[in-house]
From TrEMBL:
This is Saccharopine dehydrogenase. It comes from Chloropicon roscoffensis. InterPro entries: NAD(P)-bd_dom_sf, Sacchrp_dh_NADP-bd. The lineage of its organism: Eukaryota, Viridiplantae, Chlorophyta, Chloropicophyceae, Chloropicales. Residues 121-239 form the Saccharopine dehydrogenase NADP binding domain. It comes from the Eukaryota.
Length: 461
């Protein structure tokens, strides 16, 4: 092409190789301006990936349809030789847009980017109870993990125990935070209370180009992270808060019930969602960190969503005989009371339903209160308790008006802390295998009912 620069030739060759790798055909250089090139910047920065991709192309014997021919192979050699000197210019000139592969159910692009071999998973807050469970599960799954936290001695001890690399820094040290995040493809944030810690980590991920996952269950934090949606989508990054028990099973159930309602009653608008929680003795056990968050919560109020907005209402005692009951699909008939669960926020994004309330069985509430008030608290449930623990959920989606319609379903799943580390590991594997949606996501918005089988959940829909 006339006036073609070194950067143009490098970019054109890269596109041809990418098209060949993904679709088995050659990409005509004259359609390069039709490509979206979010990932190219990262390919240039990842010499290991470039070398492996170029090597796989040069090993092709040319027998397959669309194989790189002699001229393209020569250009591939030129790319390999010139990448180092051209990378700086290329990063400056390539438009950073979304690499669109397919659209999700909401019409947003589902992102597919090549895995970056030199960037793994950073777990911040790894020395806490849940952080340790996640770190060990990630290691056992063979993920490339670095454990991190504020306390250098605790982080080193965990790293030695698990045989993992580590880094220590405080979240108020922006330079150290950015350096660590810049080496990660995904950051798992486990350091609460999240209302005090989320913003530093989210903003660093957006600056340094890493996906963000956390295990928070705080309504206001999910709402706050949703405000970064546009920036994350523009940068091709996923922000996925509440990837633990709060809210993976309940978010999944809400999504399933809402979708069933829409398919059964397409002429009716699903205006109300109610979600109910119950645990057995072991499932109700909480960690020290969860206890601190619960003790620090605002007293005497309930949060619910009304007409699409989170509202705060005074908590008023309800006589036992007047309380709602829920059988959780098991014929239990347990009395329940309203509870401040994170689904008041997350389920709205997952389902679009404007009115949401959450409830917990009185038995489960008392079991958790007993843990909160205990003077001598362990770090959290032991391994046997996490295996024996069970959680039970029930959800109802309904419409208003004279032609009232509703759909209900129950779901059973492992203990909260077990499902947390199982869910986080699965989500990380999906992200690292290029399956993610750019922007702000809830678990169900990102992965839908795939979470059911992945996390050992069972429902009756």
């Amino acid at each position: 092409m006339a006036g073609e620069t070194e950067t143009d030739r490098v970019t054109a060759a890269m596109v041809a190789l990418l098209e060949k790798k993904h679709k088995g055909v050659k990409a005509p250089v004259d359609v390069i301006d039709k490509w979206t090139l979010l990932a190219l910047q990262q390919y240039f920065e990842s010499q290991a990936y470039l070398n492996s991709m170029l090597m796989s192309s040069s090993e092709d014997d040319g027998s397959a349809e669309g194989a790189v021919g002699e001229s393209e192979a020569d250009e591939a050699d030129e790319v390999q030789a010139s990448t180092a000197c051209a990378a700086k210019d290329a990063r400056a000139s390539i438009p950073i847009q979304a690499l669109k592969v397919e659209d999700d159910d909401e019409g947003r692009p589902r992102q597919k980017r090549e895995a970056r071999d030199d960037r793994g998973v950073l777990i911040y807050g790894a020395t806490g109870y849940t952080g340790r469970l996640i770190s060990k599960a990630c290691r056992d799954a063979g993920l490339d993990v670095t454990v991190a936290g504020r306390n250098a001695a605790s982080v080193r001890a965990l790293a030695l125990e698990l045989g993992l690399p580590s880094v220590s820094f405080s979240l108020d040290n922006e330079a150290a935070l950015d350096e660590a995040v810049g080496r990660a493809a995904v950051v798992v944030h486990c350091a609460g209370p999240f209302a005090q810690t989320y913003s530093a980590v989210v903003e660093s991920c957006l600056r340094k180009g890493a996906h963000y996952v956390d295990i928070n269950g705080e309504i206001e934090v999910i709402e706050a992270i949703s405000k970064y949606a546009q920036e994350a989508e523009e940068k091709g990054l996923m922000l996925l808060p509440a990837a633990g028990f709060d809210v993976v099973p309940s978010d999944t159930l809400a999504h399933l019930v809402a979708e069933r309602f829409k398919s059964c009653y397409p002429a009716h608008f699903p205006s109300k969602l109610e979600i109910f929680f119950h645990y057995n003795d072991q499932g109700a056990l909480i960690s020290r960190g969860t206890k601190n968050v619960m003790k620090g919560g605002k007293r005497g109020v309930y949060y619910e969503r009304q007409d699409g907005k989170v509202v705060e209402i005074p908590a008023k005692p309800t006589p036992l005989k007047e309380r709602k009951r829920c059988d959780y699909g098991r014929g239990l008939g347990l009395t329940v009371k309203q509870a401040n669960m994170a689904d008041v926020s997350s389920a709205y994004f997952s389902t679009g339903i404007p009115n949401i309330k959450c409830f917990m069985s009185d038995i489960a509430s008392m079991r958790q209160l007993r843990c909160v008030l205990a003077k001598d608290q362990t770090d959290g449930p032991d391994a046997a308790e996490n295996e024996e623990g069970k959680s039970f959920l029930f959800a109802t989606v309904s419409s208003d008006g004279k032609s009232h319609r509703h759909v209900s379903a129950s779901l059973a799943c492992p203990a909260p802390y077990k499902i947390t580390y199982v869910a986080v590991v699965w989500i990380l594997q999906e992200i690292l295998q290029e399956n993610f949606k750019a922007g702000f996501c809830t678990p169900a918005l990102a992965y839908g009912d795939a979470l059911v089988g992945a996390c050992g959940m069972k429902h009756d829909l």
